[in-house]
Every structure is written in C-alpha cells, then in structure tokens.
Design a protein that fits this description.
Layout (H helix, E strand, L loop, with lengths): L6 H9 L9 H11 L4 H11 L2 H18 L4 H8 L3 H11 L5 H12 L4 E3 L5 E3 L5
Antiparallel strand pairs: 1-2
Length: 133
C-alpha cells in the first residue's frame, strides 16, 4: 500500500471479488496501465492491442446492455440489439444492481460527460449509443 491508498480503497479492492486476486503484481500493473491512459486515442490504441475485435465488440455490447437495463428495457429487446444471451444479460443485471457499482459508476459518468443520441431499438424503446472505439 502506498501513501495514496486509503483504507476504504483497500476494503473495496478486497471486496471486489474473491475469484480475482487484485494484489498480484500482474493485475496491479494491468490496472495501473489503464489508469495511465490520458485520452481517447491512447485508450483506443491500447484496447485494440490488448483485445481482439470480437472482445471489443463483446465488451461494448455488455456496456450497452447495462445502459438498456438501467432504462428498464426488456431482455428480449436487449438480446435483439446486442446479440447477448439472456444469461449474460442476467449477469450484467446482477452486477448493475450489485453492491460494487462498477456499471453504475461508468453509466453515471457517461451520462454526465457525453451528449448521447437516442437510438430506436424495439417497439419504440430508446437507449443511448455506447461510446465508439
């Protein structure tokens, strides 16, 4: 723990998930690498090198699903829009409504910092476009 790490941060990291050891050097480095990105261009370049096109699409769809779930869009409409399975959507819903709040944090930040354009999805329902990579 360095001088900038608070006790609350340590508790949060410990609670993030028992299945992931966030204290391993490689995971700390991974988080630090993301935090070191300074702008959208750097982020696009890093994510493209890090992930396959399919993984970028999958994660983009998961964020879109979280946005749609936060607007009470039905699972079948989300599946149609994103191609995600109902099982994946249910997992996203669980995390969206869970105690860690990662999706909620990002969705709040996106709604506060970006101008979103509504897009039609199913039976007149609308959602916000996810940021393009």
């Amino acid at each position: 723990m360095n001088k900038n790490t608070s006790i609350d941060t340590v508790k949060l990291v410990q609670g993030i998930g028992k299945e992931v050891d966030w204290t391993l050097k490689k995971r700390v480095q991974f988080i630090e690498s993301i935090l070191s990105l300074k702008n959208a261009d750097e982020t696009k370049r890093f994510l493209r090198d890090l992930m396959t096109t399919g993984e970028i699409e999958e994660f983009s769809n998961r964020l879109l699903a979280a946005q749609l779930l936060s607007k009470d869009v039905q699972y079948n409409a989300i599946t149609k829009e994103t191609g995600l399975s109902s099982t994946t959507i249910a997992r996203i819903s669980k995390w969206l409504n869970g105690s860690l709040g990662g999706y909620r944090l990002i969705l709040n930040r996106l709604s506060n910092t970006h101008h979103h354009n509504p897009t039609k999805i199913d039976k007149g329902l609308s959602c916000f476009d996810s940021p393009k990579l």
